[in-house]
Amino acid sequence: MNDSLVIAGKSYGSRLLVGTGKYKDFDETRAAIDASGAEIVTVAIRRTNIGQNPGEPNLLDVLPPERFTILPNTAGCYTADDAVRTLRLARELLDGHALVKLEVLGDPKTLFPNMPETLKAAEILVKDGFDVMVYCADDPIQAKMLEDMGCAAVMPLASLIGSGMGILNPWNLRLIIDQASVPVLVDAGVGTASDAAIAMELGCDGVLMNTAIAHAQNPVLMASAMKKAVECGREAFLAGRMPRKFYSADPSSPTSGLIGS
């Protein structure tokens, strides 16, 4: 079965996207990403050197663009102008690379998205030729607005970035998924493998995570667990779960022809 994730016209075999921050060193970063099977890795341009700081260790030496799709993101940006400026720099550093992850934060405590500034930045970036994957609130109306303006994917949070609280509002996610014609990926809040599986069982097209892997006691082993969780959650979604039956049972063994009946 060919069940590729397609974003901005390109197919990917893995539906798990991973971040590159919070690891103890680049060696652990590469080992965890290899274990995850991820093909798309996101990089915070304001925090990670991908060539803008000559003479410092370069992440691209560990995660070469010919092997991974580098997804520059705007972590740390609180205005549309800062986010647009950051992604234009990333495009220069990555030789015209168009696929980007937009996030415009509302405050440093919750890291919740500032949706007015997110919508403003998304509109500018789409018109400027970027393929925009956008971190957003789990608001079906605003998610649809982002899709309608031409974003390549919408990425509603499951819970606050780095919280590990899992999916707090599955109903809103389902509303977003049911109306979307672009990929919907859970971004932020995943804490363990079961959270990733639930996201996929709900019908999400993929999951993006960083802290859940990087802050695990064994990041490489957790990356492997997340890979399996995303795969099994996707298979369960495609298989279609049995209907829930309240206040009744359905025995799995035949009831006719029993001894003594």
From TrEMBL:
Record's keyword annotation contains Cytoplasm: yes
Catalyzed reactions per annotation: [ThiS sulfur-carrier protein]-C-terminal-Gly-aminoethanethioate + 2-iminoacetate + 1-deoxy-D-xylulose 5-phosphate = [ThiS sulfur-carrier protein]-C-terminal Gly-Gly + 2-[(2R,5Z)-2-carboxy-4-methylthiazol-5(2H)-ylidene]ethyl phosphate + 2 H2O + H(+)
Residue sites binding 1-deoxy-D-xylulose 5-phosphate per the record: 162, 188-189, 210-211
Pathway it works in: Cofactor biosynthesis; thiamine diphosphate biosynthesis
Protein name in the entry: Thiazole synthase
Active site as annotated: 101 (schiff-base intermediate with dxp)
Localization, UniProt: Cytoplasm
Family: Belongs to the ThiG family.
EC number annotated for this UniProt entry: 2.8.1.10
Keyword Cytoplasm: yes
